[in-house]
Amino acid sequence: xxxxxxxxxxxxxxxxxxxxxxxxxxxxxxxxxxxxxxxxxxxxxxxxxxxxxxxxxxxxxxxxxxxxxxxxxxxxxxxxxxxxxxxxxxxxxxxxxxxxxxxxxxxxxxxxxxxxxxxxxxxxxxxxxxxxxxxxxxxxxxxxxxxxxxxxxxxxxxxxxxxxxxxxxxxxxxxxxxxxxxxxxxxxxxxxxxxxxxxxxxxxxxxxxxxxxxxxxxxxxxxxxxxxxxxxxxxxxxxxxxxxxxxxxxxxxxxxxxxxxxxxxxxxxxxxxxxxxxxxxxxxxxxxxxxxxx
Length: 294
Hints:
The chain has two domains: 4-88; 93-291, no CATH class. The protein is 48% helix and 26% strand. The protein contains seven helices and six strands. Strands 1, 2, 3, 4, 5 and 6 form a six-stranded antiparallel β-sheet that branches. The longest helix has 44 residues, at 4-47. It is globular and about 80 Å long.
């Protein structure tokens, strides 16, 4: 695991020229297409005035189709050339597989909110320091409902980064750390923590309160609060059996932005901070688990 700026400099030197050239070509092609179809639409609109709406609609669909193809091509190379290298430079024991996703059966074991539609991509697999297996991926879950008239409504439950870490020691408790506005469990399982600031952000539920207090130490709570303050993202955690699960409501991640520089510093720093935090937090929990009679 290395410093962000050093990794950024190395990836920039190796990848920036190629990716920026491709991005600029994609942007230019999109702008040219839009200009051409606007001109054609205006000319035809004057000739066939009553059909102007249809002409512009068809033009918009064609432009969107071409620009989507360009974005997909650029995005694919962005993931292979930049994200894959970035992750490997960060930790040589991690491998990025953009076309693969997190199996739904693994995500379900984190015991978050219910859903009935599931999507995943951008899988990262490998091991933490010490050889602990880890899987991370972008996950999106939705709930689709149908009313009495047969009309369907879909809303997003979760969209962000999810990770599973294999522990080497059984935890004789189920511990769930959720955002403070999530109250899905019986009050008898709620654990009151020593930090009032922590409790403003989180609800903690557990089947064994003593073990929970031993695992969720002051340094871990501080790490969580510092991450929230810096990134404005509230992570959620499940500890159960020999597994550690964590997720972040980030929206899409590891996607190229056509109208931003290929190696946009702030975008890559955000990705780095989330991955780095996940691994740092996990390692702290692993240390506590080792030192605690759980």
